[in-house]
Amino acid sequence: MKWEVVIGLEVHVQLNTATKIFSGTSTAFGAEPNTQASAVELAFPGVLPVLNKAVVEKAIRLGLALGSKINQKNVFARKNYFYPDLPKGYQISQMELPIVEGGALPILVGEEEKLVKLTRAHMEEDAGKSLHEDFSGMTGIDLNRAGTPLLEVVSEPDMRSPEEAVAYARALHSLVMWLGICDGNMQEGSFRVDANVSVRPFGQQEFGTRREIKNLNSFRFLEQAIKYEIQWQIDTLEDGGRVEQATVLFDPDSGETRMMRSKEDAHDYRYFPDPDLLPVRIADEQIERIRSEMPELPAAMKARFVEAFGVSSYDAALLTGSRATAEYFEAVAQASGQGKLAANWVNGEIAARLNREGKDIGDCPISAERLTGLIQRIADNTLSSKLAKQVFDALWESDLSADAIIERDGLKQVSDVGAIEKMVEEAIAANPKAVEEYRAGKEKALNALAGQVMKASKGKANPAQVQDILKQKLA
Amino acid sequence: MSLTHQDVARIAKLARINVSDEEIAAVGNQLNNIFGLIEKMQAVNTDGIEPMAHPQDVSLRLREDIVTQTNQREAFQAVAPQVEKGLFLVPKVIE
Protein backbone atom coordinates (compact mmCIF):
# COMPACT_ATOMS: atom_id res chain seq x y z
CA MET A 1 0.00 0.00 0.00
CA LYS A 2 1.12 3.55 -0.69
CA TRP A 3 1.17 5.75 2.42
CA GLU A 4 0.97 9.49 2.78
CA VAL A 5 2.81 11.19 5.62
CA VAL A 6 1.23 14.11 7.52
CA ILE A 7 3.38 16.30 9.76
CA GLY A 8 2.64 19.38 11.87
CA LEU A 9 5.25 21.10 14.03
CA GLU A 10 5.07 22.96 17.33
CA VAL A 11 8.15 25.08 17.91
CA HIS A 12 9.15 26.71 21.18
CA VAL A 13 10.97 29.90 20.27
CA GLN A 14 12.84 31.41 23.21
CA LEU A 15 12.59 35.18 22.96
CA ASN A 16 15.86 37.08 23.45
CA THR A 17 14.67 39.51 26.12
CA ALA A 18 16.90 40.83 28.91
CA THR A 19 14.40 39.78 31.57
CA LYS A 20 11.82 37.09 32.22
CA ILE A 21 8.28 37.23 30.93
CA PHE A 22 6.70 38.08 34.32
CA SER A 23 9.53 39.55 36.42
CA GLY A 24 12.59 41.79 36.17
CA THR A 25 14.96 38.83 36.63
CA SER A 26 17.81 38.42 34.14
CA THR A 27 17.57 35.67 31.51
CA ALA A 28 21.34 35.47 30.79
CA PHE A 29 22.33 31.90 29.90
CA GLY A 30 24.74 29.81 31.95
CA ALA A 31 24.48 31.48 35.38
CA GLU A 32 25.08 29.52 38.60
CA PRO A 33 21.98 27.46 39.53
CA ASN A 34 19.11 29.46 41.05
CA THR A 35 20.93 32.80 40.99
CA GLN A 36 18.40 34.05 38.41
CA ALA A 37 15.26 32.87 40.15
CA SER A 38 13.28 35.52 42.00
CA ALA A 39 10.29 35.19 44.31
CA VAL A 40 8.05 35.22 41.20
CA GLU A 41 9.75 32.21 39.61
CA LEU A 42 9.91 30.47 42.99
CA ALA A 43 6.17 31.10 43.44
CA PHE A 44 6.41 32.65 46.87
CA PRO A 45 3.02 33.53 48.33
CA GLY A 46 1.72 36.98 47.44
CA VAL A 47 3.83 37.60 44.34
CA LEU A 48 2.15 38.75 41.13
CA PRO A 49 3.25 38.42 37.50
CA VAL A 50 3.89 41.65 35.56
CA LEU A 51 4.12 41.17 31.79
CA ASN A 52 7.26 42.19 29.91
CA LYS A 53 6.45 44.64 27.09
CA ALA A 54 9.29 43.30 24.90
CA VAL A 55 7.64 39.85 24.83
CA VAL A 56 4.43 41.31 23.39
CA GLU A 57 6.31 43.36 20.82
CA LYS A 58 8.47 40.46 19.65
CA ALA A 59 5.35 38.29 19.29
CA ILE A 60 3.74 41.02 17.17
CA ARG A 61 6.89 41.20 15.03
CA LEU A 62 6.65 37.50 14.21
CA GLY A 63 2.90 37.78 13.55
CA LEU A 64 3.43 40.63 11.10
CA ALA A 65 6.24 38.78 9.33
CA LEU A 66 4.01 35.72 8.86
CA GLY A 67 1.04 37.75 7.65
CA SER A 68 -0.96 36.56 10.67
CA LYS A 69 -3.85 38.17 12.47
CA ILE A 70 -2.72 39.99 15.63
CA ASN A 71 -5.38 39.53 18.31
CA GLN A 72 -5.62 43.01 19.77
CA LYS A 73 -7.21 41.49 22.82
CA ASN A 74 -5.51 38.34 24.02
CA VAL A 75 -5.67 36.46 27.30
CA PHE A 76 -3.30 34.48 29.52
CA ALA A 77 -4.50 31.18 30.95
CA ARG A 78 -3.24 28.75 33.54
CA LYS A 79 -2.18 25.30 32.35
CA ASN A 80 -2.25 23.16 35.47
CA TYR A 81 0.11 20.28 36.16
CA PHE A 82 2.39 19.23 38.99
CA TYR A 83 6.11 18.93 38.49
CA PRO A 84 8.91 20.12 40.78
CA ASP A 85 10.45 22.42 38.18
CA LEU A 86 7.14 24.32 38.04
CA PRO A 87 6.71 25.62 41.60
CA LYS A 88 3.37 27.38 41.01
CA GLY A 89 1.69 24.15 39.93
CA TYR A 90 0.67 25.83 36.67
CA GLN A 91 2.34 27.30 33.62
CA ILE A 92 1.10 30.69 32.47
CA SER A 93 0.27 30.29 28.79
CA GLN A 94 -2.45 31.30 26.33
CA MET A 95 -5.38 29.12 25.30
CA GLU A 96 -8.54 30.53 23.71
CA LEU A 97 -7.16 33.92 22.73
CA PRO A 98 -3.51 33.71 21.64
CA ILE A 99 -1.69 36.84 20.50
CA VAL A 100 -1.09 35.57 16.94
CA GLU A 101 -3.46 33.54 14.72
CA GLY A 102 -3.14 32.28 11.15
CA GLY A 103 -0.51 33.31 8.61
CA ALA A 104 1.88 31.27 6.50
CA LEU A 105 5.58 30.63 5.97
CA PRO A 106 7.11 29.95 2.52
CA ILE A 107 9.59 27.06 2.47
CA LEU A 108 12.03 25.83 -0.16
CA VAL A 109 12.26 22.04 -0.67
CA GLY A 110 14.95 21.27 -3.22
CA GLU A 111 14.12 23.93 -5.78
CA GLU A 112 10.37 23.84 -5.13
CA GLU A 113 8.55 26.46 -3.09
CA LYS A 114 5.64 25.64 -0.80
CA LEU A 115 3.55 27.62 1.67
CA VAL A 116 3.04 26.15 5.18
CA LYS A 117 0.06 27.59 7.05
CA LEU A 118 0.31 28.61 10.68
CA THR A 119 -2.38 27.84 13.24
CA ARG A 120 -1.27 30.20 15.99
CA ALA A 121 1.57 31.52 18.10
CA HIS A 122 1.12 32.19 21.81
CA MET A 123 3.19 33.64 24.64
CA GLU A 124 4.11 31.47 27.62
CA GLU A 125 6.71 30.95 30.31
CA ASP A 126 9.33 28.20 30.33
CA ALA A 127 9.71 25.80 33.28
CA GLY A 128 12.87 25.19 35.32
CA LYS A 129 15.24 22.26 34.89
CA SER A 130 15.25 18.97 36.77
CA LEU A 131 18.64 17.32 37.17
CA HIS A 132 18.37 13.61 37.76
CA GLU A 133 22.04 12.91 38.41
CA ASP A 134 22.87 11.54 41.77
CA PHE A 135 22.10 13.96 44.55
CA SER A 136 21.89 11.28 47.25
CA GLY A 137 18.85 9.75 45.53
CA MET A 138 17.14 13.13 45.15
CA THR A 139 16.37 15.30 42.12
CA GLY A 140 18.07 18.70 41.84
CA ILE A 141 16.01 21.69 40.72
CA ASP A 142 17.43 24.75 38.94
CA LEU A 143 14.87 27.50 38.37
CA ASN A 144 17.06 29.87 36.32
CA ARG A 145 15.16 28.93 33.16
CA ALA A 146 11.74 29.23 34.86
CA GLY A 147 9.85 32.23 33.53
CA THR A 148 11.97 32.60 30.39
CA PRO A 149 9.67 33.94 27.66
CA LEU A 150 8.65 31.55 24.90
CA LEU A 151 6.56 31.86 21.79
CA GLU A 152 4.98 28.55 20.90
CA VAL A 153 4.49 28.55 17.14
CA VAL A 154 2.03 25.91 15.91
CA SER A 155 1.78 24.94 12.23
CA GLU A 156 -1.11 23.30 10.41
CA PRO A 157 -0.53 19.63 9.47
CA ASP A 158 0.69 20.84 6.07
CA MET A 159 3.96 18.98 5.65
CA ARG A 160 4.13 15.73 3.70
CA SER A 161 7.73 14.54 4.18
CA PRO A 162 10.59 14.76 6.69
CA GLU A 163 12.38 17.04 4.19
CA GLU A 164 9.46 19.48 4.23
CA ALA A 165 9.36 19.43 8.03
CA VAL A 166 13.08 20.23 8.19
CA ALA A 167 12.71 22.96 5.56
CA TYR A 168 9.89 24.53 7.58
CA ALA A 169 11.86 24.35 10.84
CA ARG A 170 14.90 25.89 9.11
CA ALA A 171 12.81 28.65 7.54
CA LEU A 172 11.21 29.53 10.89
CA HIS A 173 14.62 29.38 12.60
CA SER A 174 16.10 31.76 10.06
CA LEU A 175 13.06 34.08 10.25
CA VAL A 176 13.12 34.48 14.06
CA MET A 177 16.82 35.32 13.89
CA TRP A 178 16.21 37.63 10.93
CA LEU A 179 13.59 39.47 12.99
CA GLY A 180 15.99 39.65 15.94
CA ILE A 181 13.54 38.01 18.36
CA CYS A 182 15.51 34.81 19.14
CA ASP A 183 19.23 33.98 19.23
CA GLY A 184 18.50 30.66 17.46
CA ASN A 185 20.97 28.73 19.62
CA MET A 186 19.62 25.18 19.45
CA GLN A 187 22.26 23.64 21.76
CA GLU A 188 21.15 26.02 24.50
CA GLY A 189 17.50 25.21 23.83
CA SER A 190 16.50 28.52 22.28
CA PHE A 191 14.61 26.73 19.49
CA ARG A 192 12.95 23.40 20.36
CA VAL A 193 10.73 21.40 18.05
CA ASP A 194 7.87 18.93 18.73
CA ALA A 195 6.67 16.97 15.70
CA ASN A 196 3.16 15.53 15.26
CA VAL A 197 3.42 12.65 12.82
CA SER A 198 0.76 10.40 11.27
CA VAL A 199 0.36 8.32 8.12
CA ARG A 200 -2.73 7.50 6.03
CA PRO A 201 -3.38 5.43 2.91
CA PHE A 202 -2.74 7.63 -0.11
CA GLY A 203 -5.96 9.31 -1.21
CA GLN A 204 -7.72 8.97 2.15
CA GLN A 205 -9.31 12.18 3.45
CA GLU A 206 -9.22 11.65 7.24
CA PHE A 207 -5.93 11.89 9.08
CA GLY A 208 -4.40 8.82 10.68
CA THR A 209 -3.79 8.68 14.44
CA ARG A 210 -0.83 10.88 15.33
CA ARG A 211 2.03 10.45 17.74
CA GLU A 212 3.91 13.47 19.05
CA ILE A 213 7.73 13.42 19.19
CA LYS A 214 8.88 15.81 21.93
CA ASN A 215 11.80 18.16 22.28
CA LEU A 216 13.98 17.79 19.21
CA ASN A 217 16.88 20.21 19.47
CA SER A 218 18.64 19.83 16.13
CA PHE A 219 17.53 19.65 12.50
CA ARG A 220 19.37 16.35 12.11
CA PHE A 221 17.49 14.76 15.03
CA LEU A 222 14.23 16.18 13.70
CA GLU A 223 14.78 14.45 10.38
CA GLN A 224 16.00 11.17 11.91
CA ALA A 225 13.16 11.04 14.43
CA ILE A 226 10.44 11.68 11.85
CA LYS A 227 11.92 9.12 9.43
CA TYR A 228 12.07 6.48 12.14
CA GLU A 229 8.55 7.29 13.35
CA ILE A 230 7.05 7.11 9.84
CA GLN A 231 8.62 3.71 9.24
CA TRP A 232 7.45 2.46 12.64
CA GLN A 233 3.86 3.58 11.98
CA ILE A 234 3.80 2.06 8.49
CA ASP A 235 5.29 -1.23 9.75
CA THR A 236 2.78 -1.34 12.61
CA LEU A 237 -0.20 -0.75 10.29
CA GLU A 238 1.03 -3.17 7.61
CA ASP A 239 1.46 -5.87 10.26
CA GLY A 240 -2.23 -5.41 11.08
CA GLY A 241 -1.59 -3.39 14.24
CA ARG A 242 -3.01 -0.02 15.30
CA VAL A 243 -1.27 3.24 16.07
CA GLU A 244 -2.45 4.58 19.43
CA GLN A 245 -2.24 8.29 20.16
CA ALA A 246 0.86 8.87 22.29
CA THR A 247 3.72 11.14 23.20
CA VAL A 248 7.14 9.74 22.34
CA LEU A 249 10.77 10.68 22.91
CA PHE A 250 13.61 10.38 20.39
CA ASP A 251 16.79 8.68 21.54
CA PRO A 252 19.69 10.01 19.43
CA ASP A 253 21.95 7.10 20.47
CA SER A 254 19.66 4.34 19.17
CA GLY A 255 17.99 6.52 16.51
CA GLU A 256 14.60 5.27 17.75
CA THR A 257 11.49 6.84 19.23
CA ARG A 258 10.01 5.37 22.39
CA MET A 259 6.75 5.90 24.18
CA MET A 260 6.67 8.44 27.01
CA ARG A 261 2.93 8.37 27.73
CA SER A 262 -0.24 7.06 26.11
CA LYS A 263 -3.47 8.94 25.55
CA GLU A 264 -4.92 7.49 28.76
CA ASP A 265 -2.12 9.10 30.77
CA ALA A 266 -2.35 12.34 28.79
CA HIS A 267 -2.30 15.38 31.01
CA ASP A 268 -5.60 16.99 31.90
CA TYR A 269 -4.43 20.57 32.13
CA ARG A 270 -7.71 22.21 33.23
CA TYR A 271 -7.00 25.52 31.50
CA PHE A 272 -8.72 28.65 32.78
CA PRO A 273 -8.05 32.40 32.38
CA ASP A 274 -5.36 33.54 34.84
CA PRO A 275 -7.05 35.84 37.35
CA ASP A 276 -3.64 37.43 38.15
CA LEU A 277 -3.37 38.88 34.65
CA LEU A 278 -5.77 41.20 32.89
CA PRO A 279 -6.41 40.86 29.16
CA VAL A 280 -3.60 42.23 26.99
CA ARG A 281 -4.85 45.01 24.71
CA ILE A 282 -2.80 46.12 21.74
CA ALA A 283 -3.48 49.49 20.13
CA ASP A 284 -3.46 50.05 16.37
CA GLU A 285 -0.67 52.60 16.79
CA GLN A 286 1.52 50.05 18.57
CA ILE A 287 1.13 47.57 15.70
CA GLU A 288 1.85 50.27 13.12
CA ARG A 289 4.93 51.44 15.01
CA ILE A 290 6.28 47.86 15.13
CA ARG A 291 5.48 47.39 11.44
CA SER A 292 7.48 50.52 10.61
CA GLU A 293 10.47 49.21 12.61
CA MET A 294 10.53 45.82 10.84
CA PRO A 295 13.54 44.93 8.72
CA GLU A 296 12.97 44.08 5.06
CA LEU A 297 11.72 40.47 5.09
CA PRO A 298 13.51 37.57 3.35
CA ALA A 299 10.82 37.11 0.68
CA ALA A 300 10.86 40.79 -0.29
CA MET A 301 14.65 40.88 -0.29
CA LYS A 302 14.80 37.75 -2.41
CA ALA A 303 12.55 39.30 -5.05
CA ARG A 304 14.61 42.48 -4.99
CA PHE A 305 17.90 40.59 -5.49
CA VAL A 306 16.48 38.86 -8.58
CA GLU A 307 15.21 42.19 -9.90
CA ALA A 308 18.12 44.48 -9.02
CA PHE A 309 21.13 42.17 -9.39
CA GLY A 310 19.92 39.64 -11.96
CA VAL A 311 20.68 36.62 -9.77
CA SER A 312 18.64 33.43 -10.14
CA SER A 313 15.70 32.79 -7.84
CA TYR A 314 17.55 29.81 -6.38
CA ASP A 315 20.68 31.86 -5.65
CA ALA A 316 18.54 34.62 -4.14
CA ALA A 317 16.87 32.08 -1.83
CA LEU A 318 20.28 30.89 -0.60
CA LEU A 319 21.51 34.45 -0.15
CA THR A 320 18.48 35.34 1.97
CA GLY A 321 18.90 32.26 4.17
CA SER A 322 20.15 34.60 6.87
CA ARG A 323 20.06 38.33 7.28
CA ALA A 324 23.83 38.52 7.76
CA THR A 325 24.48 36.67 4.48
CA ALA A 326 21.95 38.84 2.64
CA GLU A 327 23.53 42.03 3.94
CA TYR A 328 27.03 40.78 3.10
CA PHE A 329 25.99 39.89 -0.44
CA GLU A 330 24.20 43.17 -0.97
CA ALA A 331 27.23 45.17 0.12
CA VAL A 332 29.46 43.30 -2.35
CA ALA A 333 26.95 43.37 -5.22
CA GLN A 334 26.29 47.06 -4.65
CA ALA A 335 29.94 48.11 -4.46
CA SER A 336 31.21 45.91 -7.30
CA GLY A 337 28.20 46.33 -9.59
CA GLN A 338 28.59 42.59 -10.31
CA GLY A 339 25.52 40.86 -8.84
CA LYS A 340 25.97 37.47 -10.49
CA LEU A 341 29.69 37.24 -9.71
CA ALA A 342 28.99 38.31 -6.13
CA ALA A 343 26.27 35.65 -5.78
CA ASN A 344 28.59 32.96 -7.20
CA TRP A 345 31.35 33.81 -4.76
CA VAL A 346 29.13 34.21 -1.68
CA ASN A 347 27.15 31.01 -2.35
CA GLY A 348 30.23 29.19 -3.65
CA GLU A 349 33.73 29.69 -2.22
CA ILE A 350 32.67 31.73 0.81
CA ALA A 351 29.88 29.34 1.87
CA ALA A 352 32.07 26.29 1.30
CA ARG A 353 35.02 27.71 3.25
CA LEU A 354 32.82 28.86 6.15
CA ASN A 355 31.11 25.49 6.22
CA ARG A 356 34.40 23.62 6.23
CA GLU A 357 35.71 25.72 9.12
CA GLY A 358 32.41 25.62 11.00
CA LYS A 359 32.10 29.39 10.87
CA ASP A 360 29.25 31.84 10.39
CA ILE A 361 29.20 34.63 7.83
CA GLY A 362 29.63 36.95 10.83
CA ASP A 363 33.11 35.43 11.41
CA CYS A 364 34.09 35.51 7.75
CA PRO A 365 37.74 36.59 7.55
CA ILE A 366 37.08 38.33 4.22
CA SER A 367 35.08 41.51 4.66
CA ALA A 368 32.53 42.57 2.04
CA GLU A 369 34.92 45.33 1.04
CA ARG A 370 37.82 42.95 0.41
CA LEU A 371 35.64 40.51 -1.55
CA THR A 372 34.49 43.45 -3.66
CA GLY A 373 38.14 44.19 -4.45
CA LEU A 374 38.60 40.62 -5.71
CA ILE A 375 35.42 40.68 -7.79
CA GLN A 376 36.41 43.95 -9.47
CA ARG A 377 39.68 42.41 -10.60
CA ILE A 378 37.81 39.40 -12.02
CA ALA A 379 35.32 41.63 -13.80
CA ASP A 380 38.04 43.75 -15.44
CA ASN A 381 39.95 40.63 -16.54
CA THR A 382 42.97 41.29 -14.37
CA LEU A 383 42.43 37.83 -12.87
CA SER A 384 41.52 34.54 -14.53
CA SER A 385 39.26 32.28 -12.48
CA LYS A 386 42.26 30.20 -11.52
CA LEU A 387 44.22 33.22 -10.31
CA ALA A 388 41.11 34.51 -8.56
CA LYS A 389 41.01 31.33 -6.45
CA GLN A 390 44.63 31.90 -5.54
CA VAL A 391 43.92 35.49 -4.50
CA PHE A 392 40.85 34.31 -2.59
CA ASP A 393 42.98 31.89 -0.54
CA ALA A 394 45.42 34.68 0.22
CA LEU A 395 42.57 37.01 1.22
CA TRP A 396 41.30 34.37 3.62
CA GLU A 397 44.70 34.09 5.31
CA SER A 398 45.70 37.77 5.46
CA ASP A 399 44.34 41.28 5.94
CA LEU A 400 45.67 42.55 2.62
CA SER A 401 43.44 43.85 -0.16
CA ALA A 402 43.08 41.90 -3.41
CA ASP A 403 45.14 44.54 -5.25
CA ALA A 404 47.95 44.29 -2.70
CA ILE A 405 48.00 40.50 -3.06
CA ILE A 406 48.04 40.68 -6.87
CA GLU A 407 50.93 43.14 -6.69
CA ARG A 408 52.86 41.17 -4.05
CA ASP A 409 52.53 37.80 -5.79
CA GLY A 410 52.67 39.13 -9.37
CA LEU A 411 49.35 37.50 -10.22
CA LYS A 412 48.20 39.90 -12.85
CA GLN A 413 46.68 38.07 -15.80
CA VAL A 414 48.57 38.67 -19.00
CA SER A 415 46.17 40.00 -21.65
CA ASP A 416 48.81 41.74 -23.72
CA VAL A 417 48.35 40.35 -27.26
CA GLY A 418 52.01 40.73 -28.18
CA ALA A 419 53.21 38.83 -25.12
CA ILE A 420 50.73 36.03 -25.62
CA GLU A 421 51.51 35.76 -29.35
CA LYS A 422 55.16 35.33 -28.50
CA MET A 423 54.44 32.50 -26.06
CA VAL A 424 52.04 30.86 -28.55
CA GLU A 425 54.68 30.92 -31.28
CA GLU A 426 57.20 29.34 -28.93
CA ALA A 427 54.74 26.62 -28.00
CA ILE A 428 53.98 25.88 -31.65
CA ALA A 429 57.67 25.67 -32.47
CA ALA A 430 58.40 23.37 -29.52
CA ASN A 431 55.52 20.95 -30.13
CA PRO A 432 55.42 19.98 -33.80
CA LYS A 433 53.67 16.71 -33.01
CA ALA A 434 50.68 18.40 -31.35
CA VAL A 435 50.51 20.91 -34.22
CA GLU A 436 50.39 18.08 -36.71
CA GLU A 437 47.68 16.25 -34.80
CA TYR A 438 45.58 19.39 -34.54
CA ARG A 439 45.87 20.07 -38.24
CA ALA A 440 44.87 16.43 -38.86
CA GLY A 441 41.58 17.23 -37.08
CA LYS A 442 42.35 16.22 -33.50
CA GLU A 443 40.73 19.05 -31.53
CA LYS A 444 42.18 17.87 -28.25
CA ALA A 445 45.71 18.63 -29.40
CA LEU A 446 44.85 22.31 -29.10
CA ASN A 447 44.39 21.92 -25.35
CA ALA A 448 47.85 20.42 -25.03
CA LEU A 449 49.29 23.47 -26.77
CA ALA A 450 47.20 25.86 -24.67
CA GLY A 451 48.45 24.04 -21.59
CA GLN A 452 52.04 24.67 -22.68
CA VAL A 453 51.33 28.37 -23.09
CA MET A 454 49.64 28.59 -19.68
CA LYS A 455 52.60 26.81 -18.14
CA ALA A 456 55.04 29.17 -19.82
CA SER A 457 53.04 32.14 -18.48
CA LYS A 458 52.93 30.60 -14.97
CA GLY A 459 49.15 30.47 -15.24
CA LYS A 460 48.85 34.17 -15.86
CA ALA A 461 47.91 34.28 -19.54
CA ASN A 462 44.25 35.02 -20.26
CA PRO A 463 43.02 31.51 -21.23
CA ALA A 464 40.37 32.69 -23.69
CA GLN A 465 42.91 34.83 -25.50
CA VAL A 466 45.40 31.97 -25.63
CA GLN A 467 42.81 29.75 -27.32
CA ASP A 468 41.92 32.45 -29.84
CA ILE A 469 45.47 33.27 -30.79
CA LEU A 470 46.41 29.59 -31.07
CA LYS A 471 43.54 28.99 -33.47
CA GLN A 472 44.55 32.03 -35.52
CA LYS A 473 48.15 30.94 -35.77
CA LEU A 474 47.28 27.37 -36.73
CA ALA A 475 44.58 28.25 -39.20
CA MET B 1 -25.00 17.46 35.95
CA SER B 2 -24.11 15.03 38.68
CA LEU B 3 -20.58 13.87 39.51
CA THR B 4 -19.97 10.17 39.95
CA HIS B 5 -17.69 8.60 42.54
CA GLN B 6 -15.09 8.16 39.77
CA ASP B 7 -15.31 11.80 38.68
CA VAL B 8 -14.60 12.94 42.21
CA ALA B 9 -11.69 10.53 42.59
CA ARG B 10 -10.20 11.78 39.29
CA ILE B 11 -10.55 15.46 40.22
CA ALA B 12 -8.92 14.76 43.57
CA LYS B 13 -6.06 12.95 41.85
CA LEU B 14 -5.48 15.80 39.37
CA ALA B 15 -5.43 18.32 42.21
CA ARG B 16 -3.16 16.05 44.28
CA ILE B 17 -5.66 16.09 47.17
CA ASN B 18 -5.92 12.93 49.19
CA VAL B 19 -9.63 12.14 49.55
CA SER B 20 -10.47 8.84 51.27
CA ASP B 21 -13.25 6.58 50.01
CA GLU B 22 -15.44 7.63 52.95
CA GLU B 23 -14.96 11.33 52.16
CA ILE B 24 -15.73 11.00 48.46
CA ALA B 25 -19.51 10.92 48.91
CA ALA B 26 -19.51 14.08 51.04
CA VAL B 27 -17.08 15.92 48.75
CA GLY B 28 -19.15 14.80 45.77
CA ASN B 29 -22.28 16.31 47.35
CA GLN B 30 -20.52 19.63 47.94
CA LEU B 31 -19.23 19.73 44.38
CA ASN B 32 -22.68 18.86 43.03
CA ASN B 33 -24.13 21.79 44.97
CA ILE B 34 -21.62 24.11 43.33
CA PHE B 35 -22.47 22.66 39.94
CA GLY B 36 -26.12 23.35 40.74
CA LEU B 37 -25.25 27.03 41.09
CA ILE B 38 -23.27 26.99 37.87
CA GLU B 39 -26.23 25.40 36.07
CA LYS B 40 -28.45 28.25 37.26
CA MET B 41 -25.99 30.79 35.90
CA GLN B 42 -25.67 28.93 32.63
CA ALA B 43 -29.42 29.11 32.18
CA VAL B 44 -29.18 32.91 31.86
CA ASN B 45 -29.39 34.09 28.25
CA THR B 46 -26.00 35.59 27.29
CA ASP B 47 -26.49 35.78 23.52
CA GLY B 48 -24.41 38.53 21.97
CA ILE B 49 -22.40 39.18 25.13
CA GLU B 50 -18.64 38.89 24.82
CA PRO B 51 -17.21 36.65 27.56
CA MET B 52 -15.00 38.50 30.05
CA ALA B 53 -11.62 37.05 30.92
CA HIS B 54 -11.49 39.08 34.13
CA PRO B 55 -14.17 40.64 36.36
CA GLN B 56 -12.58 44.07 35.97
CA ASP B 57 -12.86 45.55 32.51
CA VAL B 58 -9.36 47.04 32.39
CA SER B 59 -6.22 46.19 30.42
CA LEU B 60 -2.91 44.81 31.54
CA ARG B 61 -0.10 47.25 32.26
CA LEU B 62 3.21 46.23 30.76
CA ARG B 63 6.69 46.42 32.25
CA GLU B 64 9.83 47.65 30.45
CA ASP B 65 12.41 44.93 29.70
CA ILE B 66 14.94 46.06 32.31
CA VAL B 67 16.62 43.91 34.98
CA THR B 68 15.43 44.93 38.44
CA GLN B 69 15.96 41.74 40.45
CA THR B 70 19.23 40.79 42.11
CA ASN B 71 20.49 37.38 43.16
CA GLN B 72 18.77 36.37 46.43
CA ARG B 73 19.63 32.70 46.30
CA GLU B 74 21.06 32.54 49.78
CA ALA B 75 17.92 34.02 51.35
CA PHE B 76 15.58 31.78 49.36
CA GLN B 77 17.58 28.64 50.04
CA ALA B 78 17.78 29.37 53.77
CA VAL B 79 14.12 28.31 54.02
CA ALA B 80 14.41 25.30 51.67
CA PRO B 81 14.32 21.83 53.28
CA GLN B 82 17.36 20.60 51.34
CA VAL B 83 19.86 22.14 48.93
CA GLU B 84 23.09 21.00 47.29
CA LYS B 85 25.45 22.84 44.92
CA GLY B 86 22.93 25.65 44.59
CA LEU B 87 20.11 23.29 43.62
CA PHE B 88 16.87 22.73 45.49
CA LEU B 89 16.57 19.01 46.26
CA VAL B 90 13.24 17.20 45.96
CA PRO B 91 12.27 13.52 46.12
CA LYS B 92 13.38 11.73 42.99
CA VAL B 93 11.08 12.27 40.02
CA ILE B 94 11.51 10.49 36.73
CA GLU B 95 8.87 10.81 34.07
Layout of strands and helices, then pairs:
The complex is a heterodimer of chains A (475) and B (95).
Chain A: E1 3-14, H1 53-65, E2 69-70, E3 73-74, E4 76-80, E5 90-94, E6 100-101, E7 104-109, E8 112-125, E9 129-135, E10 138-142, E11 149-155, H2 162-178, E12 191-201, E13 211-216, H3 219-238, E14 246-251, E15 256-262, E16 272-273, E17 280-281, H4 284-293, H5 298-309, H6 313-319, H7 323-336, H8 339-356, H9 368-379, H10 385-397, H11 402-409, H12 417-430, H13 432-439, H14 444-456, H15 463-474
Parallel strand pairs in A: 13-14
Antiparallel strand pairs in A: 1-11, 1-12, 2-6, 3-17, 4-5, 4-16, 6-8, 7-8, 8-11, 9-10, 12-13, 14-15
Helix pairs in contact in A: 2-3, 5-6, 5-7, 6-8, 7-8, 7-9, 9-10, 12-14, 12-15, 13-14, 14-15
Chain B: H1 5-14, H2 21-42, H3 73-78, E1 83-84, E2 87-91
Antiparallel strand pairs in B: 1-2
Radius of gyration of chain B: 22 Å
- Portion of residues in beta strands of chain A equals 15-25%
Name the helicity range of chain B: 40-55%
SSE-based structural type of chain B:
mainly alpha
**Strand-residue proportion of chain B:** 5-15%
From the spread of the alpha carbons, the general shape of chain B counts as flat
How many β strands of chain A by DSSP? 17
Question: Strand arrangement, largest sheet of chain B?
Answer: 1-2
Low-confidence stretches of chain A: none
CATH first level of the domain at 5-42 in chain B: which class?
Mainly Alpha
In the CATH hierarchy, what is the architecture of the domain at 5-42 in chain B at level 2? Orthogonal Bundle
Structural class of chain A: alpha+beta
Chain oligomer state? heterodimer
Number of helices of chain A: 15
Biggest beta-sheet profile of chain B: 2 strands, antiparallel
Pfam families (chain A): GatB_N, GatB_Yqey
GO biological process, one term (chain A): glutaminyl-tRNAGln biosynthesis via transamidation
Keywords (chain A): ATP-binding, Ligase, Nucleotide-binding, Protein biosynthesis, Transferase
Organism (chain A): Aquitalea magnusonii
